[in-house]
Amino acid sequence: MSARRLARAAGVDDVQAEARRVLPRTVRDFVEGGAEDEITIARNRAALQGISFRPRALVDVSRRSQATTLLGTPVDSPVVLAPVGLAALAHPTGEVAAARAASEAGVVSTLSSSSAWSLEDVARSCAGPKWFQLYIWRDRALTRRVVERAQQAGFRALCLTVDVPVAARRTRDLRNGFTVPPRPRADQALDLLRHAGWFRRLAVSELSGHRLTMGNFTSADLGARDRLRMMDVVNELFDPTVGWADVTWLKELWDGPLVVKGVMTADDARRSVDAGADAVWVSNHGGRQLDGLRGSADVLPEVVAAVGGQAEVYLDGGVRRGSDVVKALALGARACMIGRPWVYGLAAGGQAGVERVIELLRVEIDSTLALLGRPTLESLDPGAVIGAGSP
Ligand SMILES: Cc1cc2nc3c(=O)[nH]c(=O)nc-3n(C[C@H](O)[C@H](O)[C@H](O)COP(=O)(O)O)c2cc1C
What we know:
alpha/beta, eight-stranded parallel beta sheet, 16 helices, binds flavin mononucleotide
């Protein structure tokens, strides 16, 4: 996407439209899609859109700020890049570009343990604050080594994702026969040719030695597969026996804040805090795991109440506007994470595209705070909104 077109984007939707133009169908489906009937994806948007604002008039909003702290780290905006596995599918610069964009914008980025670039490459790429997301593998020695590497590399927080006990059935990927790297079928070849720019970038990157795979693991760790079929990787290599004792295990292993990602009930929020979590991340994996869940914003009030200020609470799922972030913060979240939006930016313009997405949200948060008569994040409270938490 040219710099001019990125600058003209009036919201995340425009960046998504550009990403759709750039990405071949199978990759677009991998990023945009979710589990089964994608009910949860729709509910994430519906839950946020169902919340209304209650503005305060005649408030001096000439001085506004969206600066805050997350787990003790000062940030310029309460938006965090969520972990996205194999982000280099969208653009070869992948997770390195995302971390640099976040660093430039003064926000936190979270690296997926299933990243294409290695955690060491990402850690070296910029100075900004970074968190590391973990899946627990059946091979516990390997899991421990990855955690130790992330600690060594300087990641500030460890986020354990708890909503992937097994792979979900992602309808679009099943239909497309999606693998990494993609192996186009005869009926997909024409679509690939239509997206020659994407294909050329991938080919150049592969030729320069950057094979598109899970960069934190060796080929042997991954079962020496020629191509990765994500369902097989999850079902064969990830540990379906993970339990609360493992949160305690990680709390001991990791010297720093621990975040539990993928909490969707008050009960699990409480158990997370009891097991030592410093933050609870309300998420349904962007509708990519269990289908038929509530929208994450509908769950937020009960989680905030259950946590009772003993840990930070975050929210992701369907956040596409700065106003979505303000709604979640009014309900007690300390930050909102974005997944697909930054991948759209990456596909559309590499690092500059991710920077543009963060900037769009920053500007929208700013204007929402002004229009709402709540000029700072501290001035937000549940009275600023109405309508969340339908049972
Ligand atoms: C392509 C893709 C890959 C993802 N990979 C991971 C991952 O490796 N680990 C993880 O915890 N979450 C992963 N997620 C979920 C995101 O971290 C986040 O919870 C979700 O995308 C938020 O919803 P949103 O996309 O509507 O913003 C992934 C999401 C997408 C779209």
